[in-house]
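Today's session is about reading a structure prediction critically. Students often jump straight to the picture, but the first step is always the sequence itself: look for stretches that repeat, for charged clusters, for runs of hydrophobic residues. Only then move on to the predicted structure, which in these notes is written as discrete structure tokens rather than atom positions. Here is the chain we will use throughout the hour.
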Amino acid sequence: LVSWVNPDEDMAEATFEDYLREGVYAAVEAACKAADAEQVNTVGYCIGGTLLAAALAHMAKHGDNRIKSATFFASQADFKCAGDLLVFSDNSGIQYLEDKMDAHGGVLDAQTMADTFNALRSNDLIWNYVVDNYYMGKHPPPFDLLYWNADQTRMPKALHLFYLRRFYRDNALAEGTLTVLGDTLSLKDVHIPIFMQSSKEDHIAPAPSVYRSARAFGGPVEFIVAGSGHIAGVINHPDANKYQYWTNPNLKGAVEDWFAFAHETPGSWWPHWDAWLAPLSGEDVPARTPGEG
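Below is the predicted structure for this chain, in token form.
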């Protein structure tokens, strides 16, 4: 599990390539060394998944097979149908955000990021609390996901602008025009098993966008759609008996066709993922103690 640093002004010029080298590559090396393993199964969540997808394409260029499989939680590699966030990714929108980052010392302040995501679902994430808390005087019930949601993060200027320009605006990774660490990347070079999770009500990584991303890889892909949104759709323990998920192995048509013939299963999608991942994971071993080995 990678704990990403919350960047300050001194990281304003940290790039996508820095995160690739010091995030993905360093983490894979450290995990293999600590576990005395030659390969790892990986998970990328949201922008971490975009970073992981780029890393897989880069690894494929160099014959690096240390990642055996990749799972993506609410992640996009193809941004053509990236939803309402595309309104911020034209040149004027990017310039507006760049000016805001310059005003904050080279980082996008955490509150701006949170306000942007909340505005995309304002009925649920803003006005709901205005009515209940301000007008009606109710105290919000304790809810673990709200604590997580309130743990806001910043993004370095160089990384954020690259992400908006090359992914949201140019869709460069899916189009095969993204150059990273000296290589032009193609997702079709990635042939390892892929599991793509999306959520039906996700306003940040919309399910149709994740579906396009699933179709972009060159190897076998298991694509599912879970109930709920960007966080609760992912973090849905089976004991909760909440929501549902949809499956359909046929990824050849439009997303509407996929949904039309998808099979709905009540409850968490985690057991379905476990059944997919277990054969790729080898024998069970005693739980390791972090920091040892």
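Discussion point for the tutorial: Residues 244 and 267 are 5 Å apart (CA to CA).
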